[in-house]
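Record type: monomer structure entry
Structure origin: computed from sequence
Chain ID: A
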Amino acid sequence: MPKDYLTEYEPLLTKGSKQPKGLQYVQDFINQTWKQRYQREISKDGLTLLWSTIVSIFTIGGFIGVSIGGTLSVKLGRRGTLLTNNVFSLVASLLMGLSSSAGSFEMLIIGRLLIGINAGIALCVEPMFLGEIAPTSLRGAMGTGSSIFLTGGILSGQVMGLKEVLGKEQYWPLLLSTTCIPTLLQLQLLPWFPESPRYLLIDKGDEEKCKKALNQLHGSAGSDIVLEDIQREKDNLVGFKAKKPWELFADRSIRWQVITIIVLNIAQQLNGVNAMYFYADYLFRQAGITDDNIPYATVGTGACECLTALTCGMLVESLGRKVLISGGYLLMSICCILFTMTLALQDFSPVFPYLSVACVFAFVLSFGLGPGGVTNILTTEMFKQTTRPAAFMIAGSVNWLSFFFIGLLFPFIVIGLQHYCFLVFFVVCLSVGIYIIVVLPETKNKSFVEIQKEFQSRRSKEINSDEAEVLLISTSL
């Protein structure tokens, strides 16, 4: 990677670097607001502090949201929590949309915090809700709905950020307030859907409401089979209450499940996908795309990720979760090696920038086909009703904290290692791929009870192996 491009990103460590126009608009707004209030320009350090606060407060909000999402899902129900969560989004949309007119960057900061809380709760509860209402044969396909709509939302944001839509300076408050659109849609549609039948029967003990919900979801013909499955799970959980996150760490019977969700959620942020997007602008320029056309190329990467999320939804029930997620990580590790090689050879031939761009799209495809779509499904499937909310709190907390730390450390990694940083991501992707192959059982077309028995049989083998080893040692002595 040429040094002149690297120096362009060194200011990330000090004063913010060259920002996209949309971000520059917000910084100009902070400058103007400060000058109107105090009749002087804001210092560079002050601008950096306020801008960093606006950016990072979303992550803090996400961590808060995921920390309370599991508890709310037990007290208010899955559907009730999602409906209540819309309050955060509506207030955030209002604050961010009016921040410019009111001349208040504080409203922007609070709005970003609230929309982060909204995102944290939604990403904790929505996959859980979809996994619990889905029939076993379609649980994987429905579970990918989270990643499909997440990537669809990112793509929509990229399109609305184009200069032909809402990408001009006067429209940035309106662009930020568009978060109310999915909120209003959910408020119109979600009340027509029933609460999770598993929550109603296992957590609340309300069999009548459970049967009514099952009839609405599966029809009278298919509801009896699902009810029997839920009843079996309830019988296995007699006397148990919903657990807290810290109780999961003390429960040796679910040790491998907890370790697995921690590994998968750390890897989801540390696998290099953010680094690929970081290098994308440079590679697009090297490939001859002008600065004015780079936003359209970025939309192309968003469309690519959205398409692979849809493809994952179509393949997850036929190929299985284990094949998709392990295959995705192994393909990503190969892309990391190829990407490092093509970046190192940028100056040797004009063909290498195009090969690098191809690696970016291949990496994004691999991520969307496996890790991006399957991780939340596995968190739903690997835990029982009493441990699932706490498991999502742990998984979400790890994910948001990893997101925060990679954002904090990534500029240092790039400047220190340059394009060789992808060798670090290669090790992460390869290690996680091997871990999944060795540890994770296939969960396709299995009930929650059957999946628990798979993990219990693994634990029984470990206990028997330990006992045999102790007996062998004692006999030899």
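Annotation 1: Residues 89 and 115 are 5 Å apart (CA to CA).
Annotation 2: The first helix runs from residue 3 to 9.
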